[in-house]
Amino acid sequence: MGIPLLLVDAFTDRPFSGNPAAICLLPQWRAAGWLQSLAAEMKQSETAYLVPNADGFDLRWFTPAIEVDLCGHATLASAHALWEQGVAPTNAPIRFATRSGTLTAERQNGQIELDFPLNREERVEPPPEFLPALGVAAQYVGKSRFDYLVEVESEAILRQMTPDFRRLASAPVRGTIVTSRSSDPKFDFVSRFFAPAAGIDEDPVTGSAHCCLADFWRKRLGKTEFLAYQASSRGGVVHVSVRNDRVILGGQAVTVTKGELTGFAVEGAA
Q1: For 197-242, what is each residue's pLDDT tens digit?
Q2: Is the pTM of this model over 0.90?
Q3: Would residue 202 show up in a list of annotated catalytic residues for this protein?
Q4: Which domain holds residue 82?
Q5: Same domain flag for 146 and 237
């Protein structure tokens, strides 16, 4: 029997929107070189690998270029795939052992809710070439342990951005979150996320970025519950709730493709 491989669109209720993730259900771990090769082959912003353990599943995330410490949309897509494939019971949370600690996913209120760590940000002075690479004026620049966070004046400015990705790739961070208040009263804030150094010029919907955005906007808006929109070309909606030092990220997911790796792919890579 082959190894199941799925393509799931996360943070959306319809196909061909949100953020696609490849999900690979492994019986045991393969070499890191093989994991990275498959992620490069899939060419998605993230490929997630799952291996059963005594308490749930080990979970790792790879971009086409590197392994990363935290990924929201591929975790949401992983939970969706495990339930849909009948690998995990639908009436209990799924526990994931990851490089960012234990993460959980459960079904609540018609969506999948992820329990992630809050990622605090603080104001910083950006490198001289950073804002010119983004091509915008900043109202605020902060930094978390993963990314820069830049607030711009309006959603119109955010949507019109065309960063110089080659120059932006030299920033000493995983990626750059750009955010503003939403011009649509339905949403509290909007964002975009750029990570050319990780092999992703623009990520369509970035769950882990909202762990930092939650910290930023609770200080600006004085609230702990948000409805957010990531304004990429695909777009996606993220429900965000801050609970002490944790963030609950809520969204939906849709399976677009189901298949399996061939025996040649499984045995042919180191």
Answers
A1: 999 999 999 999 999 999 999 999 999 999 999 999 999 999 999 9
A2: yes
A3: no
A4: 3-117+251-268
A5: yes
